[in-house]
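User: Can you predict the 3D structure for this chain?
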Amino acid sequence: MPVQSPGGPQCCRGHTALEVDAAGTYRAHFSAAGWYVRLDSVAAAARAFRSAIALYQRDSRVYEEFGQLYRRRKRCDLSLPIFREGLQHNPEAPVLRARLVECTLAVGDTAGARALAREAVERGQQEFEATLKRLSP
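Assistant: Here is the predicted structure, written as structure tokens:
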């Protein structure tokens, strides 16, 4: 039975079909993941995000949104590995790094957050200078 949504059952069916019909494109899985997030279907969203990442690792937004899936639920312990992996593939992604810094702080690792901010500043990401200053002893 299709999931009821504000747009009716056809909305969900279309995203499920997109995952099947365009299974070889990461954007189809990323789009479906966003839909599942809106439906609050964590397991389906996580599966779709993982499928997108398996196909293409260079879109930092996939990692950002996947990590946010757990971060919004106060589960930074689950977000951290996702954000870290994303940053390995996309070291210049400031939003991804900022979310990694936030979750690193949320789990009590101030030194780790400081190191992430310092690395960003060393890479020329000036938007992290204030964060580094705030985290410095």
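The chain has two domains: 1-56, 76-137. Residues 76-137 form one domain.
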